[in-house]
Structures are given as structure tokens and as C-alpha cells.
Amino acid sequence: MAHSPHPLVVDRFADHDCRKTAKICLELDHWGGLLDSEWHVLPQLKAAGAQPSSPVLLGGGTENWPELVELLHQHFTVLGPTARQLQQLRSPEYWQTCARAAGVAFPETHWKGASAVDDGSIEAGVMRESAEGPAGHIKDWLIKPRRGAGGHGIGRVNGYHASLQSVEDSHYWQRRISGRSLGVYCNLTSDGQAELLGATEALSAEQWPGPSEFIYRGSLGPISLSDSQRLQINQLCRVIQTTSRCRGWLQFDFIEDAAGVLWLLELNPRWAAGMEILFLAGINPVAHHCRAWQTSSDPASFESSMATLSPGDTHFAKAVVYADRELTLTRERIERLHSLPPASFADLPSHVGSRSEPATRVVSHGEPLLTVRASGPSSSLLEQLTQLRETALMLCRS
Fold this sequence. Notes:
The chain is α+β, with helices and mostly antiparallel strands. The protein has four domains: 8-86, no CATH class; 105-175, no CATH class; 178-313, ATP-grasp fold, B domain (D-amino Acid Aminotransferase, Chain A, domain 1, 2-Layer Sandwich), CATH 3.30.470; 318-397, no CATH class. Helices cover 25% and strands 24% of the residues. The strands form five sheets. An eight-stranded antiparallel β-sheet has the order 14-13-10-11-12-15-19-17. Strands 6-5-9-7-8 form a five-stranded mixed β-sheet, with no helix packed on it. Strand 13 (248-256) and strand 14 form a beta hairpin. The radius of gyration is 21 Å and the shape is globular.
């Protein structure tokens, strides 16, 4: 629930930062699955003051939970796509179609199962239905989940021939493209305009530790885009706006290859983790999004030009610190983490239980612990982040 200095937050982790900022912060005990009108979170939100007119902003992962999005639309004013729009917007077939219409490159992709968009809208031969995937050597092929987020569930295909590994309806094959992984953040306005808010580069497995090769590790930026790239992105936004009637946030994952060609991987019509870099650099994506939905009561609170960021000498970076082993966080250790400077440490684990209880929180190996942030010349960012990571992990072990 947004549009307030003290929002109502429903979050998978309900971290310390959320609890400090929110009027209430409810932690989800599971993610995904069917819901009904008696979902236990609804009474808590309404008891805290949520009304049918209360605006709701969608965060990461909600695009893969259409049952939740549909329920929120029934009870509140969701500033985001409907469940039906999500079915279209989160379809690899749709991404392929839009990319080709906008003149944007898209990796060769194979899938099994019915399309989520009208078959007539997919150019014949662009994507082929295949249970076994492409023939021949497949070391550069990936298997991706249709309902994926943050790089979870993406893996390389094993073996030398596609016949050795099949793909189910819930996944699809995609040829791996080498290059820089970019996040591009746009805003589709109510009058049909497309605003390019900024772009970031994702940290790679070589730059930052993580539990799997393709999981989201963090972002740095803002980075510059060429005029031709900006034009392609604008054309892609317009195609999506025309075909889906989407409004507000629109985040793209691209690979920029060695020749500077942008390859579209996917799109997300919601808040994205890399947008935090834009915040740090002086652009407020939430303000842009709310204005697209015409919910601002104070136009002066928005940037007058709503222009794209102009990257300068100062860059910003964020990185997710994943637990390098199972960590047992006692109340004392959590307090130590809470004493760290908030400019450099965020998404801190919250307390468990009441203060009178000797409660602990266990963070499993490979699970996210917190986020570290840095600023300065781009050449110094990784070193800063590494030092901050070591500081946090040391406090969790001592």
C-alpha cells in the first residue's frame, strides 16, 4: 500500500528497513499458490486502514503470482497490470513478438505447450514448439522457468545433445548470449508516452559471490546508452503499450553483446531491484509510476522534466550478500547489524520474537542476508562492496 509516508507492506522477508518505515509490515509465510477471498492478510490490511481506494504498488515476484494480483484488484486500487495482462506480459512468446516488431534482437528460443498469446500474433518459425529443444551441441543453451524472478531456476543444459534433456510446460529453452547484463527502467504514461528513467549493469558471477550462476547479485550505474539503443528501447515500449495497454513501470533485462547489440531477455511490469540505483542517483521511480497512474496530489514533488538520468562521475552500486554458510543470528548479532550505517547497509534481518525471549534467526547457506551499497568512481565500487560484505559477515560470526 503506497501513497503514504508510512505504507502498509506485505513482504516475503519483512526486513528491518520495511518494519521501520511501514505503518505495518506483514511477513508472508510462503510464496505462490492459490488464494481465496479469506486470505488471512486481507483482514490485517483492512484493520490497519486499507480502503478500496488505497493504491497498491507491486514488487518483485508478484508478476508470477497472478492469483495474488487478482485478489488485490478485487479489494484495492492496484497501480499495475491485471492478472490477465500479466499472462500476456510474462509470456516468452509475447516478448519475442514485441522484440521483432520493434527491431530488437531476441535469442533463439524453444518451448513446449500452449502459447499465452494468440498464435496468429506469433510469426511462423520465430519460436518453435519442441519437447526436446534444439538439435546439436547445446553447451550454450539455458533452461529457464516461465515463472522465474531474480535469476532463480535458470540453469545450463547438460550434455552434448538436446535429446538428453527435455523441457516441460513450465520451462523453455533459450540460447545463451554472451555480454553485459543490463537492466533498463522505463515508465509508460497515461498519455501514451514512454519515459526512459535509466539503466544499470548487473553484477556477474565473476564479480560477486552467489548461490547459483544466474541469480541476481546486484547492480551498478547509472550507465550510458547509445542513441540507437535508446531509440530501440523507445520503440519496444511503444509496441508493448499498444498491444497490452500497460501503464507505469516497465523493466527490461537485456544482454549487450560485444558489438553493442541489445538482446531482449524478458520484461517485468513492476518495481525492480535495480531501481534502487536510480533512487541513489536522484531519480524517484515511485513518483514517476504514480504520476503515470495520475495519483499524485502534489505535482511539485515530481521532477519537472522527468528526463533520463545523465550519468556523471559518481556511480552507485548495490549487492546482495548471500550467506556463505548457515548463519545463526542471535538477538545480539542482529543488534550489531542494526547499528551499521544505513547508507551502506540495507535490507537488514529483523528481530524474531519478543525482547524477553532469547530468539534467534537462522539464515541458510545461499539465502540473502542483507544488501550493501557504495558510491564513487566506478573503478572503486566493487572493492567497497567487498569490504562491506566482509564487515557484515564478520558481525554474524563473532
